[in-house]
Sequence to fold (228 residues):
Amino acid sequence: MLINLLQNGLDKWAIIEIILALPVVLFALTVHEVSHGYAAYKLGDPTAHNLGRLDLNPLKHLDPLGTLCMLIAGFGWAKPVPVNPRYFKNYRRDMALTAAAGPASNFIMGTIGALLYGGVIRGFNAWLEINPSMSIYNLGYAISLLFFYFSFLNFSLCFFNLIPIPPFDGSRILFTFLPDKLYFGIMKYERYIMIALLVLLWTDVIPLPIGSISSFLLDKISSLVINV
Fold:
């Protein structure tokens, strides 16, 4: 994402793209973590609530490295909300539901963003037919770009976190189906696994189709509005 802009040179629109993408990244990461905390709270765990983490203030959830990765590569993370599974009535089920809440929130926002993206393109195209001007074109481009990033980055965050490898949410969901001994044996090495996975992603040794899937969904959902 940002790395492509830097490689191609920063013109006026590249700078605007960075300005538009930053609040989208912060909002997507914040809602992701708040959704984890809220799901845990509704399932009986007050830990995140008591620590003030059920708050949409991005500063309470910001992880500088994770935010930078999200801007540069389209995938990243926030500071995880604390979860104490001892409060859960059904440990496996409730842990999986808490883990799934984050990606689910991003999928919903990605879908809303794609519909708004399609609506903006359709609306401004109609407007330009009536009153073609560069100022209207630029305004439409900026607004559509905002919703494009809102949709794409939320979809990317959703699918990135569904990777079934610790410490991602997908591994917590997978835990529902694994024996305790095997799961906790893997979880002991989650920090090293995450570092290794990030290195492999950065070097393209493991080319994950996260961007392709996100673009596909964005295109198909927005076309429902554009082609009405």
Observations:
- The first helix runs from residue 2 to 8.
